[in-house]
Amino acid sequence: MGSQGGFGQSKEFLDLVKSIGEARSKSEEDRIILSEIETLKRRIVEPDIPKRKMKEYIIRLVYVEMLGHDASFGYIHAVKMTHDDSLLLKRTGYLAVTLFLNEDHDLIILIVNTIQKDLKSDNYLVVCAALNAVCRLINEETIPAVLPQVVELLGHAKEAVRKKAIMALHRFYQKSPASVLHLISNFRKTLCDKDPGVMGATLCPLFDIVTIDVNSYKDLVISFISILKQVAERRLPKSYDYHQMPAPFIQIKLLKILALLGSGDKQASEQMYTVLGDIFRKCDTLSNIGNAVLYECICCVSCIYPNTKLLEAAAEAISKFLKSESHNLKYMGIDALGRLIKISPDIAEQHQLAVIDCLEDPDDTLKRKTFELLYKMTKSSNVEVIVDRMIDYMISINDNHYKTEIASRCVELAEQFAPSNHWFIQTMNKVFEHAGDLVNIKVAHNLMRLIAEGFGEDDDTADSQLRSSAVESYLCIIGEPKLPSVFLQVICWVLGEYGTADGKYSASYITGKLCDVAEAYSNDETVKAYAITALMKLYAYEIAAGREVDILPECQSLIEELSASHSTDLQQRAYELQTLIGLDARAVVCVMPSDASCEDIEIDKSLSFLNHYVQESLEKGAQPYIPESARTGMLNISSFRNEDHHEVPMHGLRFEAYELPQPVVPSKSPVSYTPSTELVPVPEPSYSREIHTSTAVPSISNSGSTELKLRLDGVQKKWGRPSYSSGSTSTLESSSQKTVNGSAQTESVSTSTSRAQATSSFDLKKPQVEISEEKQRLAASLFGGPSKTDKRLTSSSHKVVKSSSHTTEKPHIAKAADTALEKPTTVQPPPDLLDLGETTVTSSAPSIDPFKQLEGLLDQGENVSAPNHGAVNASKAPDIMSLYVEIAASGQSGGAVNSVPTNGDDMLSGLSGQSIRTASPGGAAGSSPLSKGPNLKDALEKDALVRQMGVTPTSQNPNLFKDLLG
Amino acid sequence: MIKAVMVMNTQGKPRLAKFYDYQPVEKQQELIRSVFAALSSRAENVSNFVEADAIFGLDSRLVYKHYATLYFVFVFDSSENELAMLDLIQVFVETLDKCFKNVCELDIVFNYGKMQTILDEIIFGGQVLETSSAEVMKVVEEILKLEAASNAITLVPKTVSSWRGR
């Protein structure tokens, strides 16, 4: 099919595309599209539109929506189009609805019927179109409506339909596993389909199913292995070859499934060894797809029960990847290394330089993958270098998502492997300083708890050293501008608890610092709360120690400011502080015992100390307490009661107050609503009025409802609570008390960090984490292998001399890679009897670059490509079947592995049931349907048009794929 | 599973966007924009892979290929193989090239429907359906032939049954 000269579109559409292509700004583009929408709205409702015209309108709608504008006015026309008899319109209709609608859209119900009808159509293309729509538009509720027909199609005569039916079923399984659970056995049946393509399609759902439930599918291991063997031995028709690889996508899927099945199963794994070894040997490492299979093979080997020989082969393949010039292969190599390293940790050592090259590569993807690898291979001996590198990288990037990830990894590694307390504190400081707002608040709480509880079990001196070093480092950092809030909270808390503990700093010095913080971050209430609580603790220690407390003027003004604060929490804290200062030493010790953050707080959940009070009240005639569960109509209360945050009072009324106005939202933005459509009438003006009345209706019996319309935050804070519980002040107090005593307490228990003990005894080669510029030093510290590095040292120091910048390619490595890559080409698969007829084709093919054939400039190229790709497809379907049968049969008698499956293996028995004579597949290369030569006139016309459009300003020639082909 | 296929030009204009899980229009635009931002910041001669967790949520990778003025982008999860996806892009482009003869951006703009047809033959419901561009071409041509025929004889719809009888 050519491009139909002038693209077969109307002048209008052409102009549209042209003007959009020429649009200088986004607003100009928007203007053009809006006017296009107006045009379409008018045109599309005209009576008697010719079908081709209608199709174009729908395509234009899709185009409009692709550019980000609302085309919902036309959805119904797309739906109507699916009902059309003409295949052209029907397909366009289906295409448009699959792009427009989601599975829960109201219009779907209008399509289900059409889909049902089309699934029964005699024309398999209609069936295919319907199946395509099924995948996208059928949701859990509508699955039963089409399920019987889809299942029936599993037995359709056309393999294309069977394939799609399997995938539709797979889609149902993804959407709602329960609805197709009884049909899963069908996949076992289709695995034995006579068409290899259908079998290949079945692997997709099987992969998903096996992922969830490995054990039920162990019996298929033998089938999968024998299929893989047959594929690898090139027993499939030539049409399944891709770049001289036999059915690589099927191989990849099979390897993935085998990896799942063989994981932790020695018996199953042992059956796979032979075929995996074969694939390692046969893989063509020159083509992209060959490497894809190879990579999958490595993944499989690293998942299944380990086998030394295969691991060696995998290691060899990895080293080829890493030595390659291609970034893609390096990436795969690093990834594969990360997988294999779990099984044989010493494999990384031989690739250390390659890994470091990747770490310094300008390619971000590769770099990140390498960090992932380093993360996996971190141990206590190399944690300093790795974490330091990670932090450096973290500082250098702007991508918040990845920053968060790498920060949490740093924290995790530091917590797990920290060689010393000092290093740990320093590292955490860096992480918080640069990514403080991104890390989980839990990390901060963990850090506080760690400082409070200490590293060791009983070593008090080490703990106090840790605290002192933390205090010292925080006092250094505290003056820096713009620290993240989380970090400041940690700092304030630590200074409050331990600031004066070792007597090195005076209370007034530390309180002065804390006041500075509160002043500098006056917008951050949490930080201020932490700061004032820290002040209170410091004063409490002073009073308890019998020293005179002199409150700095700035502290005084801070306390005054906060006691008039809008935040009740801050007020509370300020008043508490003021009261505390007035108490005598004995009382202070009771209220605020020093260094008690780790003490357990006993919680009397039944509040038994109130029993007396309750009893008294009841005797006086008070109403007995009704448990929450017994109350009706107040369900929401329980949800907020469970939270013990002190901010809760603010949210107390929210659920009623905020939910009602929701329907107003659309009326707030009437711009998005198009007024003119008669199809979807939007009663906009009446809408908001309705809401108004509904809110005005007094709701029954809820004491809070009178405040619904107020929605004033300040008011709620003061009034919201008492309506539910008389003890609101006491809860407030207790929660603030908790934070006073140690916020770590509130968040505790969640994680039990198993910290590497005795890590502090680890000998530090470098006192402060510090990376030398030379790679070999880095390598040695990362991989810690002094024995092997000696040899490498010379070569790499060589390298450093040669090229100071690490980014340049290393020539001798390249050479090594070249030779490595050349080797495998000589390894040819042993010629098979069945393949003999085709070997001539194969052997001639490799000499011609397959890309060249695409160029479409050489007639010859096209002729060669035709038999290669299209040979068997051109021949009749029965031939393929019979060939496949024959293969299966001979495969059975072939190796030892294959002789096993005969009993009970449903795949092979299903296949051997067929007895059809073999026919030579590739012998009769069908007349190529693609042998149209390039039409010079066409190309020239196109070129002219392209220039006129100005869509492709960068290239003169319309042949855009030069770079691909050359 | 493959999550999305996008084709966009080097100015960031989408030429094809297909999401195998439904995304509302605004979200689609956002995704396209962020993908373009990620791609345009990448240097030449680096790998074709981008980790796309930040854009598409957990466990998503992105493979792209740059041809002249167009980016071809596939987004998928860990159940697919990156190198294989790269080859799938190759298959897609090869098929387009066969279909349009020296395909260029304009072909793609104007033959949106045809391009979708081709894509639907290669990827079906997020799974790889066919990887031989010759096979795809065969099917696509058959569809086009039938479409043309059904269009030509729309005035006499009964004759359509002769096609169905095949």
TrEMBL record, chain A:
Primary localization class, coarse: membrane
Polar residues bias locations: 693-704, 737-747
Pfam family, one: Adaptin_N
Gene3D superfamilies: Leucine-rich Repeat Variant
Single GO cellular component term: endomembrane system
GO biological process: intracellular protein transport; vesicle-mediated transport
Subcellular location: Endomembrane system
Biased composition (Low complexity): 665-676, 723-736, 748-761, 794-806, 919-934
Family: Belongs to the adaptor complexes large subunit family.
UniProt-recorded name of the protein: AP-4 complex subunit epsilon
Species of origin: Rhodamnia argentea
Lineage: Eukaryota, Viridiplantae, Streptophyta, Embryophyta, Tracheophyta
Gene: LOC115747964
From TrEMBL, chain B:
Keyword Membrane assigned: yes
Residue intervals of the AP complex mu/sigma subunit domain: 1-143
Topology in membrane: Peripheral membrane protein
Any one GO CC term of the record: cytoplasmic vesicle membrane
Cellular localization per UniProt: Cytoplasmic vesicle membrane; Golgi apparatus
Keywords (A to Z) from UniProt: Cytoplasmic vesicle, Golgi apparatus, Membrane, Protein transport, Transport
A GO BP annotation: Golgi to vacuole transport
InterPro entries, per database record: AP_complex_ssu, AP_mu_sigma_su, APS3, Clathrin_sm-chain_CS, Longin-like_dom_sf
Location (main, coarse): membrane
Protein name: AP complex subunit sigma
The organism of origin for this protein: Rhodamnia argentea
